[in-house]
Amino acid sequence: MNVEEGAPTIRILDPATVNQIAAGEVIERPASVIKELVENAIDAGALTIRIDITSVQGGIAAMKVTDDGDGMSPADAGLAFVPHATSKITALEDLFSIHTLGFRGEALASIAAIAKVTLITKPRGSSRASGIRIVVVGGAIKTKGETGAPEGTSVLVEELFFNTPARKKFQKSLNTELARIHGILEGLCLACPQISFRLFHNNREQLVTERTTRPLDTITRIFGNEYARELLPVAADLPFMRISGYVSRPALSRKDHDRILVAINGRYISSPPVTTAVREGYGTLLPHGRYPVAFLSLAIDTRLVDINVHPTKKEVRLTKEREIAEAVSDAIRAALAAGDLIPGAALPRPAHRELDPGESTDRPEPGVAEPAVTYCAGTIAPAAPAAGLSPFTETTHAGTASTDHRLRQTELASGVQPVTAVVPPMDVIGQIGGIYILAEAADGELIIIDQHAAHERIFYEQVSRSMAARHAQELLVPVIIHRPPKDAAILRSLIPVLAQEGVVIEEFGSGSFLVRAVPALMGKIEGTETIDDLVSDLIHKDPERPVSNRERLTRIIACRSAIKAGTVCTHEQCQRIINQLRATKTPFTCPHGRPTMVRFTRAKLDEMFGRT
Ligand code: ADP
Ligand code: MG
């Protein structure tokens, strides 16, 4: 066929088809309907919002959202279903100062294009008894008339996806969809503690929040007391942003970052840079691969936030993203520094608690996630002979001297690093298994300290802080190490980096290297083996772990240099470890995120012995 003669093949689609296509973007699943309708209710200034889900035969049959907000006049109610009809913005400029959750004018039109929608609404303060009722099916208004109605709005959605069979088929099981609805509502409840939400499924109450000015009440309501107890407040005021909310103590962590909830200007969004910033704020307080729980609200200058990125408004584009992320990390660091982070003994649960019943218990022991278990746990083999409370007398002279030497290296010149108030003063009771120090704090509190983890933390902070610690100290006899070709290549590439950190290595061919110097703070190295291990640790990078070479080296040095588990310490040495630990900035975990201390409060002990 001659193209020039034929009828045009490009057509302008009819509005119904256009709306269906647009609806596909906004309404992916039933939960999207709930999100849009509840957001409209919030924008309408509702104080209470009720959500009703009805299911039959394993599928959602109806969803209804009822609010006591502004309501709509009959004229507005008709316009509400017209695509791109909104009362929330009037011109392009408004896009940069959005204070409402909606603004695209797409939701009601989209939902109505692919479902049966019944809207009943009456404006707040209306003198009339009746409101307006409009039924729209597949985008066409079916009925419009008066009906008795309270002030506010209710929107009933039935037969979702009735005219988009492909989308309908794509829907997951009822439970999955209900879970998604729950998830959406949790975010909305947390973002709007001033509103009372009630969710019902087949008339059974599922989730209820009361109106409150304290966001922590809402968190407690949704996630329970155990969450609330482990949360520390976060607050920071910057010229372009105000941060508020709560973050968990390290004792409450998860293997996923799905409980890092961040609202920007009242809207829960997914922002990978902010999520990363939250995790970064914990630094070494959490083991690799663990994430905290966080509920953060960022009030950012609206000119810096572009919300118009995605039809569902799930993502935002942030100007000053770097500054915002840094401020978030700083605020969290400050919150954690001010908090008491010693995990309480919560028998019979492990110290790192999993509070989500859905989360499997396959979490490895803290520290096992590390590539080299032995160096992380810092155990020397064979373990110290004396298990039981050490009477502090059986140590050999040589062992004591070596421990003294290590402790001296981390002894802090008095006054240089003030003792922080976050760890209480303690008196040593004894040591068990050459691994744990038992100490008593005020009020008869028992604190158990992992001596290796503690000393590792002390070393780590010293090495990170002082450049002097990195000064190379020549070995009396250089150590020769051999490496297979692949490892040799990696080691070769690390030589310049290592030199900066005080590890001086020279290559002398066919996989052999000469270690000439190690960082001064490592002190008396116990010979070839340690250096060999140090190099192995460095070569066998964990690709998942995005830490810098300097950071890695610092951790390795700290671990290698710290007093090992299994080293019997004298009373005085134990006390020195405690004192040094109290002077660190982040005393609660070792650099790998294992706890350094566990506490049994007097109340806990009394409870365990039935004295309460
Ligand atoms: P948007 O929220 O982006 O403006 P919608 O399609 O969700 O677009 O809603 C269109 C308009 O209908 C809103 O701008 C608002 O004026 C009105 N509206 C929708 N839901 C409600 C409600 N629950 N209460 C009052 N007005 C509403
Ligand atoms: Mg809307």
Short structural description:
The protein is of the alpha+beta class and 612 residues long. Helices cover 33% and strands 24% of the residues.
Number of strands: 24
Structural class, by secondary structure, is alpha+beta
User: Overall pLDDT, averaged?
Assistant: 81
Order of strands, main sheet, comes to 5-4-3-6-2-1-7-8
Distance between the termini: 94 Å
Q: What small ligands are held by the chains?
A: adenosine-5'-diphosphate, magnesium ion
Task: Give unreliable regions as ranges.
Answer: 347-376, 381-388, 390-395
Rough shape?
Answer: elongated
The largest sheet is: 8 strands, mixed
Helix proportion: 25-40%
Gyration radius (Cα, Å) is: 31 Å
Please, how many helices? 18
Tell me what the structure shows.
The protein has 612 residues and is an alpha+beta fold. It is 33% helix and 24% strand. Helix 13 crosses helix 17 (571-582). The longest helix is centred in the first third of the chain and has 18 residues, at 174-191. The radius of gyration is 31 Å and the shape is elongated. Bound molecules: adenosine-5'-diphosphate (ADP) and magnesium ion. Magnesium ion is lined by residues 36, 39-40, 102, 107.
Please write out the topology.
Blueprint: H1 15-26, H2 30-43, E1 48-56, E2 59-67, H3 74-79, H4 107-113, E3 116-122, E4 130-137, E5 140-148, E6 152-158, H5 165-170, H6 174-191, E7 196-201, E8 204-208, H7 215-223, H8 225-229, E9 231-238, E10 241-248, E11 253-254, E12 260-264, E13 267-269, H9 272-282, E14 291-292, E15 294-300, E16 305-306, E17 317-318, H10 321-338, H11 373-377, H12 397-409, E18 426-432, E19 436-441, E20 445-450, H13 451-465, E21 472-482, H14 485-500, E22 504-507, E23 512-519, H15 528-539, H16 549-561, H17 571-582, E24 597-600, H18 602-608
Parallel strand pairs: 1-7, 12-15
Antiparallel strand pairs: 1-2, 2-6, 3-4, 3-6, 4-5, 7-8, 9-10, 10-15, 11-14, 12-13, 16-17, 18-19, 19-20, 20-24, 21-23, 22-23
Helix pairs in contact: 1-4, 2-6, 6-7, 9-10, 13-16, 13-17, 15-16
Adenosine-5'-diphosphate (ADP) binds at residues 36, 40-41, 44, 67, 69-72, 80, 85-88, 102-109, 153.
